[in-house]
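B., you asked whether I could sanity-check this one before it goes into the benchmark set. Here's the sequence:
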Amino acid sequence: MRAKRASSAQLTKLVLLPKNPTRKELSLFLFLRHFSLDVSSSATTTTTTTTAAAADDDAEAVTRVVELLQSQDVNWEGEKLRQLLSSSNSPFTHFRLLQIIRRVGDSSKALKFLEWIEQYTSSSSSSPISSSLPQAPSASVYQALFELASREPDYDQKLSQLLLTSKARGVPLTRDSASLLIRCFGRAQMAMESVRVFNDLDPSLRNTYLYNTLIDVLFKSDRTDDALRILNDMLAPDSSSPPNDVTGSIVFSALLKRNQPRRVVSGEEIIELISKMGESGVFPDAVRLTQLVTKLCRSGNTGRAWDVLHLVMKMGGAVEVPSCNSLLTGLGRERDLERMNLLMSEMKQIGIQPSVVTFGILINNLCKSRRVDEALQVFEKMSTEGENAGVAVQPDVITFNTLIDGLCKVGRQEEGLTLVDRMKSQLSCSPNIVTYNCLIDGFCKAGEIERSHELLERMKEEGVPPDVVTLNSLVDGMCSHGRISRAVEFFRDMQRSGLKGNVVTYTTLINAFCHVNNIDKAMELFEEMVGSGCCRDPVVYYTLISGLGRAGRLDDAWSFALKMQEAGFHLDTMSYNILISGFCKKKKLDKAYEMLKQMEKEGIRPDGVTYNTLIGTLSKEGDFSTAHQVMRKMIDEGLVPTVVTYGALINGYCRAGLLDEAMKIYRDLGSTSKIPPNTVIYNILIDSHCKDKKIEAALSLMDEMHIKGVPPSTTTYNALFKGLQEKNWLDKAFELMDQMHTKACNPDYVTMEILTEWLSAVGETAKLKRFVEGYEVSVSNM
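And here's what the prediction gave me:
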């Protein structure tokens, strides 16, 4: 007969658990508790209640330990911590240790607690704590410490120290620990620490996610080469961690990074990367592919962009219309219409339906290339494409405006106007301000000012208010065709209607008045512009300085230049050249030199025009010594003297009657300077020789012109006719008269004046008549 099982109360009386039980005593106590459970139905309830009570007890014990560790007066040598850990009825488990570490909130205290536990268990091998914990801390314990440290302000230092400690204790990293460390070190700009963590991890624990984490850190730290090396490991044929779409997102986003101070991935590398990743089925998504193509095109690598898009197509990646549009835009910038048409054809073949933007890009570039008829063909194709192959694309207002602008720019305004009626036939497409501005500008440039005004009234009637662009087009058109007063009147009318002009409006009017030498009106308009609060720009200042310079009002021009500087703008080389040229014409060389010094003071480098102006003026004044000094300075500044430079010197020497010096420079042109003389230089020399009664030398220079392929001008022949007249050398004159017809060089009034006087005096009016009628006149041809 089986003995009756003792009740729980009876067993508790038999064995009382001492305050500090040994392992043997604890084991016996737990063994007896196990067998004290009643087999009746009430046993389940009792067990559940006991388990819940134990769990509450454990939670309370953990809370007390955490509170003690978080306090400022933790006594690591005292008994309080030991008593708290021993107060629970259940063993101190690894799980409870992790709970305490995670809740402490301070990695330093958590590590100190771990070290205390280790010391305590090693010194008290018989304690309940020692019996339920491993002899060395596990990887999961350090993972908890890493997680705790990663949330602290000085996480980089804390993690580095914890990593060293774990290595010293021989604790291996878990995959989660490695991922956390790589991300945290990357955030702290400690990319190479991230690499070391990755290398220290057991290779069997590395997966695609971990590779992606490290590659992302390296790219963000601008360690492109290191990132590409890691990526190559993933792309290896035997790789156990192949790339996925996340890898692609990281890599292609990095390639699109605008500022890469250390390393810029070349177009060839991008193509190689796309090829290798494509073999693993990873391609740029539609957005990133579009961005990649755009970036390559904008950096001048349109050919590479073409290769990238076609590589993705070939390997089966998804290609959508925005990517094609981006490439079309890049090809358009290079005016590569042949490949634009080829891409359009390829889109059709692989089933990519062009959008209205696609057609708009093609039409825009055809119009910019002045191939408007082809643009019109594309325009017509848009709405008829669907008849044979699918969905037609209805042109939008931008497409219409692009085509209308293209037609206007080639002088086909009437056709552009016809398109407006077609726009109105589409319910969702009405002409807007841009439409009318294109037409008005086109008619203005064609001189049809009245038609432009008719369009202005028409747009008002249709509820499209004119803007400042409309105003500027009409003002410019009227000024360009000599209707300056009408332009001002129109401007005043628009002002009264509430449309104010801008700096372009005023600059156009100021420039027009400067060209008709009405400087006072130009200055008045400038003052009006300033008074109206209109924003000024350098162009309006340059316009007035130029106008004042041409009018000879150099002091006013310089005064205005100072105003320009006060307004925050700087004179450029062109403005200084205008002033220097003006002072030179007025023979105020001291003022011209002052301008030159001012240029150098402001760091504005004089150009060839500056030096040529000074050299020309000095040569005309006969100051050849200074002229040559200026020329040497010009060369020292890195500027090469041109035919204009030498021409100025030659002209000066000829005017001074120093033909030998002039000829010396002429001979140097073909030898030392390697600059061939032009028609102007030959004309100066031939005229000077003729005036010096050296007609043979002048004719010899004419022969050199023929040999060197320099075309003579009417001025050349006029100088020779004058010289030949002095010697009454008729035969040579008749020969030159025939030569003029051969060279298609038409006589002018000077030619006719010389020949009429000469040939009439010697009774050769018949020859003159034949010359005028275009027939040969030389003796050998009579």
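One thing to flag: Residues 693-782 form one domain. Otherwise nothing jumped out at me.
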